[in-house]
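tool=predict chain=A
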Amino acid sequence: MFRTGSVSLKALTVFLFLVILLEAVPGPSGRLVALRPIPAATLTSSFSFSPSNPRVGQVVTFTGSASGGTSPYTFSWNFGDGGAASGAIVKHIFISLQTFTVTVTVTDSLGGTSSFQNSVFVGSLNPKVKCTPTIVRVSDITDNMTGSASFTNSPFSPGITTTVSGGVAKRWLTPGPTPAGWHSPGPSCIITNNHGLPISVYVEIHGLKRPSTSSEDPATSYDATNGGASYGGGTFNDFTFNAFDPALVPNYGTSCTSASDPTCYGRIHMEMDHDWQAAGYCGPGTTCDPSTFSSVRTIPSLDGSFIHSQDGGYTRPR
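tool=predict ok
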């Protein structure tokens, strides 16, 4: 007869524990000869990340997972750029455009480990431009100045120039292979500015709005700087507009009334060059699509380049 109470319950607990952790080992004649621990399932690890196509400067969320082994688990991360973190769900920001090998290592409660690696390509707003952008607001470009001083003192001055006879300074930014008829290789993503410092001439500008837009300077062939070849049919126009940062320019219509007006610091002139549109660097599927910009006035972010020129496809302080 079994007694009730704590003793019997403890015995039951021990019995269940043995059933879970031990298995019978039969001998040659089928008799039970030993008990041995039941091996745990192999520890495996993995992770997912969001967004799936992250940009430079964007927060990426990594979610680790594990199975097998003996829980609970701990997660350690190596992001391939010198950064590290711990935890099942972590966040990270990559600051350069390249492919990173991210590794998560899972350790279970008995000290077993499992590692999983995956490649994460970090790009820019415009996947067709393989340069690491500098993320800025308009006032970073104008250096909080107006008129010619804003251009001279801008960290992005002098921008891109050209040595092609008869050409203007408007060039693509992808080094290496170029569209048919364009000069190769493309210019460097990095210039030495007027202050003697290296800086990317490819930028992502955040926090923009725009007033009206216009189309001008129609063309049917590339500029001499870009090879001078025909577009192969069709006409493309420069798509131009003045953009402003609403944090500095509350009312565009009454802004920048004098050279000393600080609202001037938040205004900039932009053009989506006809050559860039013809080559596919601007247009459908990019962040510099004239049809999209024609229908919106708030621009969360935009990519562009700085070119030392008074004509052509460029972004310049105004």
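Residues 6-37 form one domain. The first strand starts at residue 22 and ends at 26.
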